[in-house]
Amino acid sequence: MLQKSRKITFILAIISAIIGVMLTVQLRSSLHPVHKESRSIAELRTTLQKELEKHKNLLADISKYNQLYYQYETSLSEDESISVMKEELARTRRMAGMVGMEGEGIVIDVVDAHTPAEPVGDGHMPVPVVGDYTIDDEDLRWLVNILFANGAQAVSINGHRLIATTAIRNVGDVIQIDTRTIRAPYEIKALGEPEVLLSALKLEGVEENFQLANKKVLAEKRDKLMISANNETRVIQFMKPVKQKGDS
Amino acid sequence: MWLPLIGLIVGLVVGFLLDWRVPQEYSSYLSIALLAGLDTIFGGIRSFLERTFNVRIFMSGFFFNTLFAAGLAFIGGYLGIDLYLAAIVAFGVRLFNNLAVIRRIVLSKWINQQE
C-alpha cells in the first residue's frame, strides 16, 4: 500500500512538472508573442532597395557637404576662398534654376493610350472607354517628386523649368505651372542618373497609375539633355540683405 | 503529498530555463492542451478525495485529453470550425464542477474534524 501511494505521488509529480512546463511556455508565448513578418519577400525587397538608394544618396550628400566644409576651412589665401565661393555660387544658381543645364538624363512622355477599347491586363474586365479621366496636378506633382527624390538635378515639364517655389496646380480644367498653362501631351525632362531615375519610376508604379487615366508613359534615356533656365521673373518681396559689421 | 508540488515548481523552473516559445498561431492549441491537463489534474484530486483514484485512468486521461483537445482544435482549424471553443467550454465546465466537488469534500472533512 505504501509503495503504491509513493508511486502515485511520483506520477503526480511528473505530471505536475509537465503542467508547469506547459504553463510557462504558454505564459511566455502570450507575454512575448513571436513576431511574425506578414509582408511578402518581394515587398520587403522593394522596400530594402528603396532604402538602400536613399541611403546612398544621403551618404553622397554628406560627403559633398563635408568636402565643401573642408574647402572653406582650408582655403587660406583670399584667391582660393573666392574661387570656392564662386563655385558655390554657381552651384546654388544651378540649384535655383537660374542657369541652363546639360547632361545625361531621361525624357518622359505622357501620351494618350490610343487603344482604349482594347482590354488591358487579363482580358476579362473590359476597360471602360475613358474620356473623362485626365491626369491632374496631383499626378504630375507625384511624378516630379519621385524624380527629385531619386536625385534628379533639374526637371522641366513642357519646357518649364521647375524650381523650389514652382507650383503645379489645377486651375479650372487645365494644369498650370506657376502661371503658365500646360496641355497634354506632357513632356517631362529630368537630369540625373538615367538608370536610377528609370528604376525609381518602375518601383513606384508610375506606369500603372497613369494607365488608370488612360495615359501611356514613355520614358527613355538620353545621353545629352538640355534643360533651359527658369525664365520667370521673380519678385523678391520680403528678403533683405544682412548688413554685418566689417562689411564693406 | 509534497512531491507533486515540488514537481510543479521544477516544471516551472525548467520551463523558464528552456525559454520555449510557441508561435502565435499555435498558441491556442497549447492553451487547450493546458486546459485539458488542468482539468485532468483537478479530476484526479477529486477522485483521490472520493477514494476512487485510479492511476491508469488518471494517466491515460491526462495524455489522451491533452492530445485529443489539441488535435481537435487543430482539425477544427482546418475545417473552419472553431472546435477549440467547444473544448474550452467543455473543459471549463468540468473544471468548475471538479473544483466545486473538491471544495465540498474538503469543507465537509474540515467540519467533521472540528466536531
How are helices and strands ordered from N to C of chain A?
Answer: HHHEHEEEEEEHHE
The SSE order of chain B reads HHHH
What is the number of domains of chain A?
A: 2
Which percent band covers the strand fraction of chain A? Answer: 15-25%
Regarding quaternary structure, how should these chains be classified? heterodimer
Stretches of chain A where pLDDT is under 50 for at least 5 consecutive residues are none
Beta-strand segment tally of chain B: 0
Q: Assign a percent range to the helix content of chain A.
A: 40-55%
- Number of DSSP E strands of chain A: 8
Which descriptor suits the 3D outline of chain B?
Answer: globular
Distance between the termini of chain B: 25 Å
Could you outline the blueprint of secondary structure elements for this entry?
The complex is a heterodimer of chains A (248) and B (115).
Chain A (H helix, E strand, L loop, with lengths): L1 H30 L9 H34 L3 H19 L4 E12 L24 H13 L4 E4 L2 E2 L6 E4 L2 E4 L2 E3 L3 E6 L2 H11 L1 H7 L2 E13 L21
Antiparallel strand pairs in A: 1-7, 1-8, 2-3, 2-7, 4-5, 5-6
Chain B lengths: L1 H17 L8 H23 L5 H25 L3 H32 L1
Task: Please provide a written account of the structure.
- The complex is a heterodimer of chains A (248) and B (115).
- Chain A is of the alpha+beta class and 248 residues long.
- In chain A, 46% of the residues lie in helices and 19% in strands.
- In chain A, the strands form two sheets. Chain A has a five-stranded antiparallel β-sheet, covered by helices on one side. A three-stranded antiparallel β-sheet of chain A has the order 4-5-6, covered by helices on one side.
- Chain B has one domain.
- With 115 residues, chain B is mainly α.
- Chain B is globular.
- Chain B starts with a helix and ends with a helix.
- In chain B, helix 2 packs antiparallel against helix 3 (55-79), helix 2 (27-49) packs parallel to helix 4 (83-114) and helix 3 runs antiparallel to helix 4 (83-114).
- Chain B has helices spanning 2-18, 27-49, 55-79, 83-114.
- The mean pLDDT of chain B is 85.
- The chains are: A alpha+beta (248), B mainly alpha (115).
- The A-B interface holds A 7-26, 28-30, 32-34, 36 and B 1, 3-16, 18-25, 27, 30-31, 33-34, 37-38, 40-41, 44, 53, 55, 58-59, 62.
